[in-house]
Amino acid sequence: MINPFALLEQQLTALGMIPAPLIVVAVIVAKILVIVLPLMGGVAYLTLAERKIIGWIQVRNGPNRVGPLGLLQPIADALKLLTKEMVVPSGASRFLFLIAPILALGPALAAWAVVPFGSEVVLANINAGLLYILALTSLGVYGIIVAGWASNSKYAFLGAMRSAAQIVSYEIAMGFALVGVLIAAGSLNLGDIVNAQRGALGPGSWFFVPLFPLFVIYFISGVAETNRAPFDVSEGESEIVAGFHVEYAGMGFALFFLAEYANMILVSGLASVLFLGGWLSPLPWLTSVPGVGLFFMDGIHWFLGKTAFFLFLFLWFRATFPRYRYDQIMRLGWKIFLPITMVWIVVVAAMVVWHMPPWFAAGARG
Fold first, then answer.
1. Which of 26, 79, 248, 349 is the most buried (most CB within 10 A)?
2. How far apart are CA 98 and CA 147, in angstroms?
3. How far apart are CA 171 and CA 140, in angstroms?
4. Helices (H) and strands (E) in the chain, counts
5. pLDDT for 355
């Protein structure tokens, strides 16, 4: 497989006019742009997909006026937010008020540095990738807390406190679920975790089978961490107006909006990598079929398809379930998810130590 970034580095080096450190920086910037620009486009059109899908579930059309089939609606929304004034409330801490949206969006984008899209398609193939993900995703809560405190508004502060408590509660369960993946794969490298799911059973070798309780808890915790319905108590309109971002307008609100949807894509992408084999094909035995064999080979299209499936679940949940009460959310996280994850970690460790077939038997993985 040709690495386009290695080719770019070779071409720039062959020119002989650019210093080596600048070439390294140029290649890194190119990698970042290749990830961030499609991600921002995906975030924009995820909003359109949400409105369309929820519209179809509720037997209506959704956006259909701006452009053919409403496809230009995200661009119209972006232009509207760009032209709106961002007002800093009197008595607010101006510096913290302005930096809070960046603190919310930054970790959601930076986490993609270690997410592998394919066997060799990753920005930074570091050995502690899973640890890096845990560290960065835990930083997102600071943007919410800072936004609520700096707004000088009791509604915003109350929303921030509710959101922070919810995120911290479910991050513990999510962290334990990822510990189960670490035990099963024996590595913190996300590429190694995907390769550990390669086996003779095809999809049956993926970690969602032996780690099914952890898989379910991880995804539900991801929904709660992103403050999505039915866990969106931080912005319960009937109780606290719009929660922590009630004082934000224009691009400040847009950045919080982008952070929420970027986190949805991140949680979905990680779910596909950690539990559904990432770029691995679900039908590897069809690669020899003439005409369609190429499609059934391992590749980035499988990673994108699995990620899209989890994103659809996010939207389906929002259209289906009513909002939980705050005490129900806390009880689910602390009294149900946390004990289940701790018990299943012990079960997974026992399966690994005793080489439980077919997933952890000696030589079971390809």
1. 248
2. 8
3. 11
4. 14, 0
5. 87
Radius of gyration of the CA atoms of the chain, in A: 22
- What are the phi and psi torsion angles at 199 (to 5°)? -160, 180
Residue-averaged pLDDT of the chain: 88
Q: How many CA atoms lie within 13 A of 162 on its CB side?
A: 26
Q: Is the Cα torsion angle 247, 104, 54, 43 positive or negative in sign? A: positive
Global confidence as pTM = 0.92
DSSP-assigned letter for residue 188 = S
Phi-psi label, residue 101: left if phi above 0, alpha if psi -120 to 50, beta otherwise: alpha
Q: Which residues contact 191 (CB under 8 A, 6 or more apart)?
A: 116, 119, 122, 125, 129
Helix, strand, coil percent content, the chain, rounded in steps of 5:
70, 0, 30
- The 10s digit of each residue's pLDDT in 282-335 is 988 887 777 777 888 888 999 999 999 999 999 999 999 988 888 899 999 999
**How many Å apart are CA 337 and CA 274, to the nearest integer?**
18
Series of mean pLDDT values for 10-residue runs along the chain (366 residues) = 69 77 84 89 94 93 91 93 89 91 92 89 88 90 91 86 87 93 93 91 91 96 90 67 82 90 95 94 82 83 95 94 88 94 95 86 59
